[in-house]
Amino acid sequence: MGSLRRRDVCFEYPADLRAGWHATMPEFACAANAVSLMMPYVEPYVVRAMREALPTLHGALSDDVRGYIAQEAQHHAQHRRFNDLVASQVGGVGAVESLLRRTFEWLWRTRSDRFHLAYAAASEAVAYGAARWVERHHAELFRDADPVVAALYLWHLAEEVEHKNVAYDVYDATYRSRWPLAGAMVVSMVVLAVFAFAGTTVGLWHERRLFHPVAVYRLCRWSLSFILAELPNMFASVLPGHHPTDFTDPTWFELYLIGIEQEQPAPA
Ligand SMILES: [Fe+2]
Ligand SMILES: [Fe+2]
User: What CATH number was assigned to the domain covering residues 26-262?
Assistant: First the structure.
């Protein structure tokens, strides 16, 4: 068996949970919700690409892909539940989701199998970059957040760190060229930027903070900090000779997963 395991988590949100679930920085909730809205679209897309590659894989890598698929399926199912809660409060979420659905249907219909796998590898590099950035800022970002929502994001990011190699290894076992990886990385960034902006905008409108100077300042500061710290790493991820293990994992997430496992029975 591979080393990746599915953790059966279930997040019980308070009945009165607000879509702006951060007590002191509701704009952070808006940005995080925007990322969450993407999950039930991007993750099934990458899972489908990996599932289609599975019959060509053998040994430890095929075990890892099964573990990867189980983790990702759990991620987007949990985000779906959370997003439904956000959509019930925030107008415009349905329109963003409809655009997301059409974007990923279009990518699947019009792009090649090689692009789908390259997109999976690129998305994992982006998720890994996001995890590293959040790890450095989690004390500031989640201090006044609803603890159940914080747990959803931190569990997801921790598993992104854990399975960072899998999509890359599948791409590498099937195709050698780095150019499709670079192209998929650009597309992945554009999709992230467009939908993060759209989702955050509808959230800020709902919170009546769309033009609030503090909200705008914080969002610009976080975006710039993320771009400066992680954009170079994401493009390094597509260079010849690079492997995701070249990056050092934040230990904090490993400890976070151990904490979850201690609350759960070990798999049979
Ligand atoms: Fe995920
Ligand atoms: Fe992932």
Answer: 1.10.620
